[in-house]
VANG1 protein (Sylvietta virens), 525 residues
Amino acid sequence: MSAAMDTESTYSGYSHYSGHSKKAHRQGRDRHKSPRSKDGSRSEKSVTIQTPPAEPLLGNDASRAEEGQDDNWGETTTAITGTSEHSISQEDIARITKDLEDSVGLDCKRYLGLTVAAVLGLLVFLTPIAFILLPQILWRDDLEPCGTVCEGLFISVAFKLLILLIGTWALFFRQPKADLPRVFVFRALLLVLIFLFVFSYWLFYGVRILDSKDTNYQGIVQYAVSLVDALLFIHYLAIVLLELRQLQPMFAVKVVRSTDGESRYYSLGHLSIQRAALVILENYYRDFTVYNPALLTASKSRAAKHMAGLKVYNVDGPGNNASGQSRAMIAAAARRRDSSHNELYYEEADHERRVRKRRARLVVAVEEAFTHIKRLQAEEQQKAPGEMMDPREAAQAIFPSMARALQKYLRTTRQQQYHSMESILQHLSFCITNNMTPKAFLERYLNPGPTLQYDRDRWFSKQWTLVSEEAVTSGLQDGVVFVLKCLDFSLVVNVKKIPFIKLSEEFIDPKSHKFVLRLQSETSV
């Protein structure tokens, strides 16, 4: 009973901490929404990459909750009286309206493109069948009999259409990963080519076959077979342009996160700027560590404190000459700034010492907790089946013994906003289910992991903005720089072309490897 009460009290304390943190997050998000900057004089082109809707925003709301409120917020705030308890400014209304218009425009554009592609695909697959069936319907009695070769062409058309259908499904009918700001040029060109191709075939069919009521049915079937063959070649061209062309690396891009300077290098092929941005964002969520604004806030406060110097005042008035005293004060301020690096050094050393100390306590606590659960598993096997624990119950049983050490470590390393109590229990239950070691359980908390490792509602950005001086539909070139912006930070991308490498060959005759042993009187040989 006492163990259960301790467990409940530990849970309530951790839940109170998590609930208080989440409440602060919500209040910070509601009260501190900065308006968008409007700079009409910029020469850069800004477009938007928007992922599927109904997803939470990226970033830590707790860091924004600490910021001060705008000084002139009362001048632009419209209070809603009556039973309402909220207020909203005109800038927020304009921003929300613009977001709704942008989202509606993107949805319409996406559905319009899908509708046009679906209608054109249906026309492509029905055209060969219509070429074969129309003569049978309109002038069946006047047609020449279809021989063995003609009947064999029916089988050829059927299998080629089946292959074309499977290939089209595999290449084009995919779940969209993002909404790009502009159309994909090669895909649009392929759609136009297919439309012109089918239209020309229908035009020739209507003039030479329907008007004249051609009686050579085998020739009509061969005409339909030629259409299907041409469609298969266009599908092969689509594979080359959409898939194979971009596989060969041609450019090396450096991606730098603007806030903390973390960078990665990637190799890309012939891609447009908007598709290169999409590839970079996909790799960002996998390769970059999660963005933690709490670490940046601490570093900024330390820098501001250490850069603060002495202020010099001329108490004798502007007419008196106090240059000597002023120079002395400025020299003292300079000496103080010179010694600030020592304070920063000892402060960082003390922080590292506290992190190592709490890390050691956490490792010991987790190892002891996993030792208990192992003993429980060995002892529970001999008890009644009704008293057995599932992984969730086992995780809840051992979590209180490590909760305090884990909470202190996460606070020291400023990771508490990314790990809720429920996520920790789920991870602990997962480790127990798969018989993982304490080291495997701690791997998520001891080292900052990639962005995908954390809960989706804590890192996922609904909208990215692509800022580029070049057209986003143009291909990558040497020296191109573009920026991917989200709510809290931006990714600066610098493109460099992979240099041409000239490799020469030098042949060495295996028989030339001959050696002579030189003997000297001083050696022991």
